[in-house]
Amino acid sequence: MNTTQWLGLVTGVLFGFLLQKGRVLRFEKQVGALLLKDMTIVKFMFSAILVGMVGITLLTDAGIVTLSHKTMNVGAVLLGGALFGVGWAIMGFCPGTSVGALGEGRWHALFAIAGMVAGAALYAELYPFFDSTVMTWKDFGKIGLPEALGVSQWVIIPLFWAATISLFFWFEKKGL
């Protein structure tokens, strides 16, 4: 294995450890998030986004990494989001939490993982159809939020941090 693969393995194991310690692998947390009654998973995701957005921006600014956006295609986002949401609602797991749950020894997560593999295979088979239909919906090209708004990412980051921290305080006040 090369250095990149080792770093990927280490960060993946660390992320799995944090998922487990944050208790976001628990079924009751998954259902609570879907019912908007327990914001543990939302807080975990936003915390990861806050750290990641600063880290990736610093690495990009230092020239250590280069970002390569995928195209912002409305059809792909709507279809992908709907499939993700339906899968999460049916199984009570998202891709990361299903693998983490399996790592905890909860074998029923294999059904979620099998569903993801089957869904990926089905998508690959249907891709020509999607490419000529859904993927033809509005395509904004390879843009991110800074490009869409015409501002530096260093303008967006503190605003996102402030909004997220305010949201966390509101969650705590509401007991979520």
Structural summary, described in words:
Helix content is 72%, strand content 0%. The chain has 176 residues and is mainly alpha-helical. The protein has one domain (3-174). The radius of gyration is 18 Å and the shape is globular.
Task: Give a short synopsis of this structure.
With 176 residues, the chain is an all-alpha fold. The chain is 72% helix and 0% strand. The N and C termini lie far apart (43 Å).
How much strand? under 5%
> How many domains comprise the coordinates?
1
Spatial extent as radius of gyration: 18 Å
State the secondary-structure class.
Answer: mainly alpha
What order do the SSEs take from the amino end to the carboxyl end, as H and E? HHHHHHHH
| Percent helix | over 70%
What is the terminal separation in angstroms? 43 Å
SS field, number of helical segments: 8
Count the beta strands: 0
Main sheet? none
Pick out the low-confidence regions.
Answer: none
Oligomer: single chain
Q: What is the mean pLDDT?
A: 90
Q: Shape from CA axes?
A: globular
Provide keyphrases for this structure.
8 helices; 72% helix; single chain; 176 residues; mainly alpha
What secondary-structure arrangement, pairings included, does this model have?
Elements: H1 3-21, H2 27-34, H3 40-61, H4 74-91, H5 95-103, H6 109-132, H7 145-149, H8 153-174
Helix pairs in contact: 1-5, 3-8, 5-6
